[in-house]
Amino acid sequence: MINFDSPDYILSPEQWRAIPGSLEAIARLTLAGISVGIVSNQSAIGRGMMAQETFNAIHAKMMLAIEQAGG
Description:
mainly alpha; elongated; about 70 residues
């Protein structure tokens, strides 16, 4: 896992919080030449709880955090 989960879903970029060490682990793998893939189960989109644009903003926040950590 990269971020903390919530029983109420992560519904905004402000709610997204990385688990300590997760971004650094991705950076270490990247620096070692290992490709990292991320899979996300966003049932909140299918349930109509979040728009695709909001998911895109959450994803952008996560990717920026990974890049800033060196991943």
